[in-house]
Design brief:
alpha+beta
Length: about 180
């Protein structure tokens, strides 16, 4: 029976290694290059920090009045095959649990649909706001993308409108950090 030598297997390992490296680099960096857009990659690039405006249906039970729109920031990290989104407001943080980016009936229109988990600051839990889950559906406008717009709903029975605009490339870690950069 013939024995496979290292010399026989070496070309195979080099090819597999090179393909793995190429796929990894393409997935992380090259997918978003303009040369691949449309004909090879049909996925919008959402990376960066976005200013978010939330208009909630919540009614204050004490006053019977609604609330002003809530301003926040969404940080999106993305590769060809992954996406993470963290929404930060003055009072809470939300993280994406599951998502889908779907091409709509119009080939140039995409929709981001997601499920998230919201954690209010600890001093608000048990007082005014609890940890909760929700979902959202956002239409993605433009190429390059300039706006995401849609609605959300929560397991607390609230819902509302949601708009993401004013994207910058920098990825911020906190609400205060993003707020400082956007206000200058």
């Amino acid at each position: 029976m013939p024995v496979l030598s290292a010399e026989f297997v070496k070309p195979f390992s080099l090819v597999v290694g090179a393909i793995t490296l190429l796929v990894t680099v393409f997935n992380k960096y090259l997918w978003s290059l303009r040369i691949f857009k449309g004909w090879y990659v049909k996925r919008p690039d959402l990376r960066g920090t976005w200013k978010v405006k939330l208009k909630s249906s919540w009614i204050n039970p004490e006053t019977g009045a609604g609330i002003e729109p809530i301003v926040g920031y969404a940080v999106v990290r993305q590769s060809l095959t992954t996406l993470s989104l963290r929404l930060m407001t003055r009072e809470s943080r939300s993280v994406l649990v599951a998502y889908s980016i779907d091409q709509q009936e119009d080939e140039d229109l995409f929709k981001l649909v997601g499920v998230y988990r919201n954690e209010p600051k600890i001093e608000l839990q048990g007082v005014r706001s609890e940890i909760h889950h929700g979902s959202f559906a956002l239409e993605i406008h433009g190429s390059p993308v300039y706006e995401l717009q849609g609605h959300y709903w929560t397991d607390r029975g609230t819902k509302g409108g949601m708009t993401l605009t004013g994207r910058v490339k920098e990825l911020y870690d906190t609400f205060d950090q993003a707020e400082a950069k956007y206000s200058t």
